[in-house]
Design brief:
5 helices
Length: 159
């Protein structure tokens, strides 16, 4: 059974930071693809969100949809710095496995309910701004994902 407790034990969170942005890419015009599997809705998405030197609005909207608050259905724009951080992380780990989404966007209502139920949820969580995501990657040890994310030094990493 999929519970919040075992999801949190299996994954960790990333938060985008303005420090060190934008990331340095060898070829800024090349495409950038991300893949997701939302563990709560069982939806999957693999999409090129950066095309021809710009963020693709339709692709970003599709990412916003899959990372929506699964409890309320509310959709919020996910910050492109977070998308770039995830793209860079997958490159660092040399994996094309999808990010297993534990928590993407959280509405203020959902976040308040979670904070009331757990001291581990920040009342001012960056999830409410589309700046944070809790993930796991199948086949990649969580400690390896955490260490790679920390090595990027592009945002916060919770474990």
């Amino acid at each position: 059974m999929l519970t919040r407790r075992n999801l949190l034990q299996a994954g960790f969170g990333l938060a985008a930071s303005a420090i060190g942005w934008p990331p340095a890419y060898a070829d800024a015009s090349s495409g950038r693809t991300l893949s997701f599997h939302n563990l709560h809705t069982d939806e999957a998405l693999s999409i090129e969100y950066w095309q021809n030197g710009a963020y693709a609005a339709d692709a970003c909207a599709a990412i916003d949809q899959i990372l929506r608050d699964h409890r309320t259905g509310e959709i919020h724009a996910i910050d492109t710095r977070l998308l770039d951080l995830l793209h860079e992380l997958s490159g660092q780990l040399e994996t094309r496995a999808p990010f297993q989404v534990i928590s993407g966007y959280r509405s203020p209502h959902t976040n308040a309910a979670l904070a009331d139920a757990s001291s581990g949820v920040a009342r001012g969580s960056l999830h409410m701004q589309g700046l944070a995501i809790d993930i796991a990657i199948e086949g990649v040890p969580t400690a390896m994902v955490r260490d790679a994310a920390l090595g990027l030094a592009r945002g916060g990493v919770g474990f």
